[in-house]
Amino acid sequence: MIRLSAITPSGQPTLGNYLGALRTWAREGTHEDVYFISDLHAMTSSHNPQRLRSMTREQLAVLVASGIDPASVCVQSDLIRELGALNWVLECTCTYGEAARMIQFKEKSLGRESVRLSLLTYPVLMAADILLYDADRVPVGDDQRQHLELTRNLAQRFNSRFGETFVVPEAVIPPPGRGDRIMDLQEPQKKMSKSSASQQGTIGLFDSPAIIERKIKRAVTDTETEVRYDPKTKPGVSNLLEILAASAGGDPRALAEGYANYGSLKADVAAALIEKLRPVQERYRELAGDPAATAGILGKGAAKAESVAAVTLERARTAIGLLPR
Ligand code: AQP
Description:
Bound molecules: adenosine-5'-tetraphosphate
Radius of gyration: 20 Å
Helix content: 40-55%
């Protein structure tokens, strides 16, 4: 069974990325799996080439520091030719209406015509990423549920029109309340994102203990005093309880019963988080200081990716009616 997932180098990885994705990839992954840095997806909005390159290297080190098997790590653009080809095949399978219905597109485009066309079409590229590797399972946070559904629809439609070609993947989403959707500390109705305009609501994976403490202390709660898990009416407090549960173990609802006020909850959340992130930060610092090791991981990842992708692409080309090579 092949699991596949990705992280976009659009900013410093956040606690949301770690709790919702990276730690699961590290815990459940094997060397057969594929975890890649989606540098092509990072180009769907205004980007700086120099920064893109450095963040791609940085995130590669973050994946390995998070405990993910280096043999399963690669960079999306290692397969830029194969992906370009399969992306076209899948665009010829997808409708405009399907792409335009994607919530992330609506949220990020806000109806502006000046957005890059790739913002509309990148879920199709994401489908190409997944299908090219014959992935069976795709562990992601809840925010990617709709994109995964699109991938499944495209694979099923292609298979039924042109013959069995693609593995139809399944999304694996952590159960609600266990880190599937970590919210912004300042605007708890919004998910925590690495490209947020303000860093105050976001815990970065490289934040120091002092910064983590300060951000958690200032996290928005509500005007009540009761510590209770209720994401609808108490999103700020519930988010803190989810972070605590995901960092130190336990169930957010049950954990709430141990607290009489928000201050003691915040102190425990900060302490648990600092301990959870400490080993990741230490391993990251070691890797960041060893560029040769990162380059070695990159080279091996690219070779492995190419060998798998060539076979799937040939199957798709032939099925859709292109002349075999
Ligand atoms: N807040 C979150 N809670 C739980 N999981 C999350 N993920 C992202 N944010 C949260 C999961 O992290 C993995 C990698 O995400 P991504 O880089 O592919 O893109 P994203 O979902 O768009 O993440 P960001 O941080 O919000 O990035 P930007 O700001 O660039 O849009 C995915 O599995 C995702 O579900």
